[in-house]
């Protein structure tokens, strides 16, 4: 029943999906934290930038962002991000687009986490003479992160599945292989879908269970 | 661990069940003489295109309309249904459409699930290049070339490129052909590759006329057939007769000239009917 899979390298395709997830997961965590810091900072220009960025990017469909990076940055402006050939460039552009998009959701989760830290703590830290940066990195963010592990796991799971959009700009990940198989194996088309659905469950379910456990372990008991 | 295994298999079963229900649907089709539902592409200029004002045009549409006319159905009584590549087999086997004329190449895998009539057009994989670009030479030169090619993710043409047409080329895959055209115009890619009939449709579009040309290579044979329910030999004969008549009375050539002419596409003569059960 599954012998049609022999001629395809499923692992190769899912490995690209995993790489996309890891790189853009790390990237969006960093960029999202920076954005969150901007949104709670005392500098009005930074707050305005953070708000504008998030409201623009978050409300743009990911496919549009993805295709825009490829058609705009690569094909029109010839920015290759040091990729060399088109598949490597496509991969890097896809990571860029995924980071730009998911950082918004990381930022908003993190901001809700910041709100769980009692204001008194930040005020006390200020009273002790800590700067804004010190208050954020020493007092607020460590507690904020611990309370948003579960929402961040949601973002990571969404990110894993959203990597499939990279197929639109030719990254050879799981969804691209699925299009190939749909084209060639039209007689077992539902089986093809089931195989890929199962593949994604294998990726996301353990992540969800693990991070759910972590979130219980590290939650700040108030 | 046991729980995890159980939940894993439960999730898999659920996924299977969900995908399986999607292909339910009843089947009360068959050519009843006064109306037909025909599957075509809605996004392929020159072959099957839904225009902004809701009309349908293209070579596939003309062929389907002619077949319908031969079956005693007026053009106004045809219901057009979009048949994206991945859905074609299911649309037929569920009975959602009576037949499909949507750049549907006859292949052994597809014949496992559906039957074909025709073919009505013999397309070949070819390259679309910029008008002033002569760097693409023969098929042999292409095999060793390091050109930047563009095609649609997972399509047969893209697979051909990787396997034998130009394994050393730098292949860029997009979700649709329109994205490739942007790159071709900006010189980010050297050529767009797929069936010449599809390429001709794009080159003949008003926005692109005079910018691109076909390289004129025959890299593969793609006989476009009419997809019908598996084993429906009565319908197959009706359609084959209609196609033969369309070729004989000159309507076939007229339709081909109308849709492919502006691109200077030298289409093959009407192919011999091969699908006689």
TrEMBL record, chain A:
PROSITE patterns attached to this UniProt entry: ABC_TM1
Chief subcellular location: membrane
Alphabetically ordered keywords of this record: Amino-acid transport, Cell membrane, Membrane, Transmembrane, Transmembrane helix, Transport
Keyword Thylakoid applies: no
Superkingdom of origin: Bacteria
Compartments in which it is found: Cell membrane
Keyword Membrane: yes
CDD domains named among the record's database cross-references: TM_PBP2
Domain ABC transmembrane type-1: 14-211
Transmembrane segments: 20-38, 59-77, 89-107, 188-214
Membrane topology reported for the UniProt record: Multi-pass membrane protein
Entries under NCBIfam families matching the protein: HEQRo_perm_3TM
Family: Belongs to the binding-protein-dependent transport system permease family. HisMQ subfamily.
Protein name: Amino acid ABC transporter permease
The organism of origin for this protein: Streptomyces gossypii
From TrEMBL, chain B:
InterPro entries linked: Bact_solute-bind_prot3, SBP_3_CS, Solute-binding_3/MltF_N
Family: Belongs to the bacterial solute-binding protein 3 family.
Lineage of the organism: Bacteria, Bacillati, Actinomycetota, Actinomycetes, Kitasatosporales
Keywords from the UniProt entry: Signal, Transport
Biological source species: Streptomyces gossypii
Pfam annotation, one family: SBP_bac_3
Domain Solute-binding protein family 3/N-terminal, first and last residues per copy: 35-263
Protein name, per record: Glutamate ABC transporter substrate-binding protein
CDD domains: PBP2_GluB
Signal peptide: 1-22
